[in-house]
Specification:
With 301 residues, this protein is an alpha/beta fold. It folds into two domains: 133 residues, Nitrogenase molybdenum iron protein domain (Rossmann fold), CATH 3.40.50; 131 residues, Nitrogenase molybdenum iron protein domain (Rossmann fold). It is 41% helix and 15% strand. It contains 15 helices and ten strands. Strands 8-7-6-9-10 form a five-stranded mixed sheet, sandwiched between helices. The longest helix is centred in the middle third of the chain and has 22 residues. The N terminus is likely disordered. Keywords: Ion transport, Iron, Iron transport, Signal, Transport. InterPro entries: ABC_transptr_periplasmic_BD, Bact_iron-sidero_bind, FatB. One of its GO terms (biological process) is iron coordination entity transport.
């Protein structure tokens, strides 16, 4: 395949020279990229989310069932491989002016750079909000969308402030991810931790280990921690996998006996939005609205 790709690249016409470039911040540091690229491929759902919010049209996306709110951005757009395995030959034929990679496609950045200018826009770690803002600013610089970006940032800041006010004084929370019958817990230094740090929402169990896939826990653990709020992410639902739903997994006396269970304070998030497109501007707005609505109906302690 490597030799076939090399031969294919040699047959392609040279790219038109354009001296206009901009310098932006990426996950790998500063990078110089073409300004206002015409043919753009995005291989990361958080990137697709934010680019869509900015009104950037894409020439290629990965083959995946996207979160429902991103379905219009995928409809009619050619697919170029998967999140983990981009189709290098298809991309070479497409000859994009810019490829936006990151997250699950991060490992393929070097190979993608053999085809076209490629930026790693991975969002990961405990400062998801800060990275989301930085990626939005970078995309706005690339595509000359600063005014729209300013509007989106203002909306995000307003949503964060309103959600902080909604959760204030209403107790602690435990974030869990279900995967069929398995459960993992996530703390404030995890990829979901911004729900604690950005909102001032106390952790029900601050000693949760910082692990990529969370700390494996049991129903007995949840009962012992006894969170005021249980924030639930259903991985199987997020990736369209059949299996026991989170609601069924948590339907047992141990969970029902917690403060969260007794008071109807179990919040099921839009799992695809947070698990697949975490850090996208639209994703964050959806999640903030869900949390705000859930907490707003309950009185402070």
């Amino acid at each position: 395949m490597k030799h076939a790709l090399a031969a294919l690249l040699l047959c392609l016409p040279p790219l038109a020279a354009d001296a206009r470039t901009v310098t932006i911040e990426t996950a790998a540091g500063l990078a110089e990229v073409p300004y206002a690229p015409d043919v753009v491929v995005a291989l990361d759902l958080a990137a697709i989310d934010t680019l869509d919010a900015l009104g950037v049209d894409l020439a290629g996306v990965p083959a995946i069932t996207p979160p429902a709110y991103l379905a219009p951005a995928f409809e009619g757009t050619p697919t170029v491989g998967t999140l983990f395995e981009p189709d290098l030959e298809a991309l070479a034929v497409m000859a994009p002016d810019l490829i936006v990679a990151g997250g699950r496609s991060q490992a393929r950045v070097a190979a993608l750079r053999e085809i076209a200018p490629t930026i790693d826009m991975t969002i990961w770690g405990d400062d998801i909000v800060g990275q989301a803002r930085a990626r939005l600013t970078a995309y706005a610089t690339i595509f000359g969308k600063q005014e729209r970006a300013g509007q989106l940032l203002a909306s995000l800041d307003e949503a964060l402030a309103e959600t902080r006010a909604a959760v204030e004084g209403k107790g602690n929370a435990l974030i869990i991810l279900t995967n069929g019958g398995k459960i993992s817990a996530y703390g404030d230094d995890s990829r979901f931790g911004w729900l604690h740090t950005a909102l001032g929402l106390p952790e029900a169990h601050p000693e949760i280990a910082a692990e990529t896939h969370g700390e494996s826990v049991s129903f007995e653990f949840i009962a012992e921690v006894n969170p005021d709020w249980l924030i639930v992410i259903d991985r199987a639902a997020a990736i369209g996998q059949e299996g026991e739903a989170a609601a069924a997994t948590l339907d047992n006396p141990l969970v029902a006996g917690t403060t969260a269970g007794r008071n109807g304070q179990i919040v099921h998030l839009d799992s695809a939005a947070i698990y697949l497109a975490g850090g996208g501007i639209q994703s964050m707005m959806i999640l903030l609205e869900q949390i705000r609505s859930a907490f707003a109906g309950h009185a402070a302690d």
